[in-house]
Amino acid sequence: MGVYRFLLTPRWWGINVFAVLAIPLCIFMGSWQLSRFEGRVQDHQQQESRSARAKAAAARPLESLLPVDTVTSGRQASARGHYDAGHQLLVPDRTLKDKRGERQGFYVLDLLRTDGGKALPVVRGWLPGDADSKADTAKVPAPPKGEVTVTGALQASENQGTDGVQAGGGLPQGQLGMISAASLVNIVPYTVYDAWITQTDPRAPLTAVPPAAVEGSGLDLKAFQNLGYTGEWFVFAGFVVFMWFRLFRRDAEAAKDAALGILPEGDDGGVGAGAVAAGGSSGAERESDRADGSGAGRGEERAEERAEERADEQGEAARAGRV
Q1: Closest C-alpha among 7, 158, 148 to residue 79
Q2: Are residue 99 and residue 169 in the same domain, yes or no?
Q3: For the chain, what is the radius of gyration of the CA atoms?
Q4: Domain range for 162
Q5: Is the per-residue pLDDT at 48 higher than 60?
Q6: Is the same domain home to 97 and 192?
Q7: What distance in Å separates the CA atoms of residue 169 and residue 176, rounded to the nearest whole number?
Q8: In this structure, is residue 65 part of a structural domain?
Q9: Looking at residues 75-102, what average pLDDT do you find?
């Protein structure tokens, strides 16, 4: 234990306390980030399973599926009413992903005035092209007249983080940047459901818009960020262990060298002081050598002084004889 006495110094107390606290913290944070990633993977799998079941399940009345949550999102909902042809809206710059790849176009949205009085936003389909082009918008079919029953996948209102949303405003009249009750409240003179549906079987040339996954349930960038953070925390824990052993080995080797009397030039503190005390006899011998050397020097000085005194006496005797 004598060689490892440096572990009891205040410096090493600080190093040990830091390591004892940092390593469990890093492991805990890494495990927490890993559990979040696994939770997102599980949510994604559950959502895919629910979506598959929802497509095969029979449509249910809209009111029975509200409010929209992770369970009801994507479920087939039905509502009865008549379309408000005077407030048809286009949702520009929306991408459709299908077997043909990604295509740019716009949604066609109409408001279904239900028997209960509220209006339900219905995306009747998607068309390729530009919502600002008269040639492209001329292809939009008019909504059905009279009372109809509409069936489609239920979706939660969009927000600023939804793909394709234009929340900044500045769109021409007849266009909508975000499908939500908050965006429609200043456009139509009646109450709107805080939800919308994408129609399952739209009329040609419209293409059905597939329902979007519940926000936060997919394997998106945030999910893989959790996985990346997991690796970072575990790397931090390994780095703390590596640095502790590196410092320990360096100080242990220095203590062993000091115990053998091997000290760096100019090193008169720290481990060296302990080594001098531990060396004992070696230190005493060096002190004795230094004492002997200083004594010899003083003897030589005295001999020189006596020689000078004799020379002075001889000079005085010679002067007296001449007198």
Answers
A1: 148
A2: yes
A3: 44
A4: 75-199
A5: yes
A6: yes
A7: 8
A8: no
A9: 91
In Å, how far from its chain's centre is CA 180? 30
The SS3 assignment for 162 reads coil
Residue 67 domain flag? no
Q: CA 215 → CA 48, 161, 189, distances in Å?
A: 13, 9, 30
Region 32-56: mean pLDDT is 76
pLDDT reported for residue 291:
45
Distance (Å, whole) CA 300 – CA 254: 41
The torsion region of residue 189 among left (phi > 0), alpha (psi -120 to 50) and beta comes to alpha
Which segment of 56-65, 108-117, 255-264 scores lowest on mean pLDDT?
255-264
What number of CA atoms fall less than 13 Å from residue 68's CA on the CB side? 22
Q: What global pTM score does this model have?
A: 0.58
In this prediction, residue 42 carries a pLDDT of: 79
Q: How confident is the model over 148-160, as pLDDT tens digits?
A: 999 999 999 998 8
Strands (E), the chain: 60-61, 76-83, 89-98, 101-114, 119-128, 147-156, 195-199
Statement to judge: residues 42 and 79 lie in one domain: no
Instruction: Provide CB contacts within 8 A for 230, sequence distance 6+.
Output: 30, 31, 33, 34, 37
Neighbouring residues of 83: CB distance < 8 A, sequence distance ≥ 6: 110, 111, 112, 113, 122, 143, 144, 145, 148
Domain count, the chain: 2
Mean pLDDT of the residues in the chain: 81
Please give the residue that has the higher pLDDT: either 300 or 104: 104
Give the pLDDT band (50/70/90) at residue 53: low
Residue 316 pLDDT exceeds 70:
no
Cβ atoms of 177 and 167 within 8 Å: the answer is yes
Q: Pick the closest to residue 154 from 67, 222, 32 (CA basis).
A: 67
Q: DSSP assignment of 248-261, as one string?
A: HHHHHHHHHHHHTT
CB atoms within 10 A of CB 232: 13
